[in-house]
Amino acid sequence: MDMLLSKKMSVFFFIGFLLASYGGLDITAIALFGVCVAFVLNFYINNKENNQNPQLAINTLTEGEIDFE
């Protein structure tokens, strides 16, 4: 119940409520829609974090080693 009261999660609660009451969707349809939205948001957030913090290629070769790339 604590997660429901957070500002980030309450938006999804009210969207689900509106879909159920005004959209005429049943709980299973809303759950499947929520899973799809969760995958899209997770993919978007992970790509955004990876683009902001690109890993720099560090040359770790020691003397005498050959880099064949």
TrEMBL record:
Q: Which UniProt keywords apply?
A: Cell membrane, Membrane, Phosphotransferase system, Sugar transport, Transmembrane, Transmembrane helix, Transport
Q: How does it sit in the membrane?
A: Multi-pass membrane protein
Q: Name one GO cellular component term.
A: plasma membrane
- The secretion signal range is none
Q: What residue ranges are annotated as transmembrane?
A: 12-45
Q: Where in the cell is it found?
A: Cell membrane
Any one GO biological process? phosphoenolpyruvate-dependent sugar phosphotransferase system
Q: Which InterPro entries match?
A: PTS_IIC_man (IPR004700)
Q: What is this protein called?
A: PTS system transporter subunit IIC
**Which organism is this protein's natural source?**
Clostridioides difficile
